[in-house]
């Protein structure tokens, strides 16, 4: 977006095309604030940038500015397409294809994902075989579950692939480094500290199909009943095998207090864990989804990583919802390891 602004302002200076004329310079808020005023297209950009990060435009000041009809059309284009498109290269958690998938396919109660729906989803593969999901949090870092590396933690054995199809991946990357949480106990009974970060080599450029998710602040709260999506190539039922096309399912956050009830997980849910699903069963993550993302959109439609698929008692069973690593609990750890 930044480069775009500079380019356009240079262009407008050269062409000096009166796309926007300031009518009353002295009363313009930007003018008043900065004590300078630039005209034509450059003024338009400074107005856009000066006010609320570009969402409020010169269109909000009809009494101050006169706008060329072409510019007006471009404004609309920019508002609808441009802002979203430009955020692809700088922002996080954006999806280009926001139309919900229409083909209902059962997978532990979910549906097929469409290309570009979950651009942060990665597949971690051991010698070319899908083992775990992972989530892109920058051009070089993935976050996943520690238990994925229980048997093999040498980066050389692993690769990451992007895109909704495992067989025809959009991009593939080697793994440079795997950092498993220091406190993760490498045994099957412990699920605490089930988090790892993985560094890719080389980095992946962001596109419509490959893009990072937003990381929440450590203080962010995702209340009970918040609707989230979990995605993965995992099994459709307990003990099933992985699938080729990415699937998604909607689940709701279940409070730790409810999840610790005797008939549910009877006290084993720790503060660093989060339950999501339905106590009546039916929709859940399953084997092969491990390490993958549980995400929810904020009010602006930007998607945040809430959880990492960690464990569960079988799949989609009554009173046994999926258990996730609570990302906010490890937000500082992620920052410490990745600088993000
Ligand atoms: C310009 O705006 C100022 C402040 O709002 C106002 O006092 C002034 O009359 C305006 N001038 C013209 C020419 O409209
Ligand atoms: C969550 O949903 C359940 C079932 O619909 C309801 O009983 C419960 O009160 C809700 N909790 C909150 C905090 O809204």
UniProtKB/TrEMBL annotation:
Signal peptide, first to last residue: 1-16
Claim: Hydrolase is one of the keywords in the record: yes
GO molecular function, one term: serine-type endopeptidase activity
Keyword Oxidoreductase annotated: no
InterPro entries the record matches: Peptidase_S1_PA, Peptidase_S1_PA_chymotrypsin, Peptidase_S1A, Trypsin_dom, TRYPSIN_HIS, TRYPSIN_SER
Bilayer-crossing regions: none
Pfam families assigned: Trypsin
SUPFAM superfamilies: Trypsin-like serine proteases
Key words of the record: Disulfide bond, Hydrolase, Protease, Serine protease, Signal
Entry GO terms, CC: extracellular region
GO terms, biological process: modulation of process of another organism; proteolysis
Domain Peptidase S1 residue range list: 107-339
Annotated family: Belongs to the peptidase S1 family. Snake venom subfamily.
Protein name, as recorded: Peptidase S1 domain-containing protein
